[in-house]
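Comment thread on ticket #2218

A.B. wrote:
> Attaching the input chain for the structure job we discussed in standup.
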Amino acid sequence: MSDSSDDILFAYEYSPGFNGNNIVMRQYTSLDAMIANNFTDKLNITRSLGAINEGTPSFDKVDFSGKLTTSNFTLRLHFYKNSQHDQQAIGHYKDGNWSAHEEKAVNILV
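C.D. wrote:
> Ran it. Output below, let me know if you need it in another format.
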């Protein structure tokens, strides 16, 4: 993130009931705003690898533009391959588009 920004980017696994999980991200201007759940930007990432679950995100790289939805970033995540096996993946959000792929080199070791 930029050295001149105190913004907080938060990514989490969202579970809206029995429809499976997906990743949601929010941007907050400060810790106080985060505590008050007063976010300035939000991004729902649609599942692209697993039919029922993608989540447990962690940031790998962030190119922060000052606004979440116009920034570029890379997340590590998991998904349920064929709705049965928990697998690792990596996803990229660039120029407003999300793409993810399985980390086969990691998953073969598990």
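A.B. wrote:
> Thanks. Noting for the ticket: Residues 8-107 form one domain.
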